[in-house]
Amino acid sequence: MDELHHLSATDALRAFRARRLSPVELTEAVIARAERTEPVVNALCHRFFDEALRQAKLAERRYAGQGEPPRPLEGLPTVVKEDEPVAGQPWTQGSLRHRDTVAEHTSVFVQRLLDAGVIVHARSTASEFASAAFTHSALWGVTRNPWNPEFSPGGSSGGSGAALAAGSTVLATGSDTAGSIRVPASFSGVVGFKPPHGRVPVDPPYHLDTYVHSGVLGRTVADVALTQNVVAGPHPGDVGSLRPRHVLPGPAELGRDLRGTRIALSEDLGDWVVDPVVRRNTREYGERLRAAGAHVEEVGLLVPRARVLRAAAIHFHHGFGAAVAAEDRAPGAHLTPYARAFARWAAENAADAGVLDGLAIESDLYRPVGELFERFDALVCPTAATSGLVAGEDYLDHGPEIDGERLGHYLESLLALPFNIMNRCPVLAVPSGIAGNGVPTGVQIVGRPFDDTTPFLVGAAVERRPRWPEVMT
User: Fold this and answer.
1) For the Amidase domain, which residue ranges apply (predicted)?
2) I need a surface site. Which of 27, 136, 358, 364 has the fewest CB within 10 A?
3) What domains lie within the chain, and their CATH numbers?
4) Is 156 marked active-site?
5) pLDDT tens across 245-284, in order?
């Protein structure tokens, strides 16, 4: 068995049921690991360790046959991203403005996890109002990548990705509006899933924003599938939630080969500057797919970068970006420079375009991908174009330098963003390798609209478990 703090959720549940491991032992191991690594990683903004141990003892009794039977995720230590409301807990959203805010309700998404038996031992850090692809804030400081603390674990769900990689949780939640689950999964060497819009209920008013998704991160494809099956399904409070509930295959069904599966491979979506090591690791991932029996074809797909950013700016300006700008106008607001810059960027780049103008661009962007899905079962491409974003860097008015080119905005380094626009496509982010700086790289497996199962079958078939970082303290 792996070190307890890096045990997968599926392995932990198997050990719980066989009475070879207690939820108390696992929770104690995760807490001890967090206390060792948090001085460096800084991924946990609120801790509930005493209450977690009390819940772990109750879970232990369930596995011992005392009282109610164990629930699907009984006894698994889980961090919940700080932007999700949980009744009675701080709802800080990475913002000084909400440092004293306490949630009065629990989101449907988190309530389903609680009802399934998870133990929320901590809340994970995020960028302010989940508005950036990196994770630091004036409220909590800088969250660092356990693989190399000079770099960010990504964002906005960076605390969740970092906690998983560091070993200070077993499961984690995230939200994804421009890659905020998949980018941290990539930089942290873990697995994250952006479900198709409507698969997982979202709190209002963002349940009607098609770019917005709630989802989960884990150490393995099976862990994420297991948890996704808990959170997915319709809810009367979300008019966009999908019926019927989609059920993903269990661990025993996920390990099959890929004979007959047709996969399109793109290193750069035709128009994105991509680090050579990210390209190399993407090609090598394609070779692993071929070895598993898939037909893999490198395709000349073109998803124009400028058009993606234009569509995103219009969308954000009329919704999420406007909400951030409104927070900034509130009395006593002290927003971070990057949050202000996000709202300003959206307004400036939307110019005078209306919602319908943005929808027309979004439709044009999807057409070549939709045509691709007439011939292929899935598309594989990088999640992020860069091998790392510098920890604590605001990236104001510039993006990272990639392959000798300085990008104008960090969003240009996120190949995840197009699939918030093509939001009915399920996308599984999985590790593809390691860059020279020690930071993991990743690919995303994009499925046809509402075909959640295929990305999981593809990802599980070639999965390799990493050797987790030590985190020098």
Assistant:
1) 25-453
2) 364
3) 4-461 (3.90.1300.10)
4) yes
5) 999 999 989 988 899 999 999 999 999 999 999 999 999 9
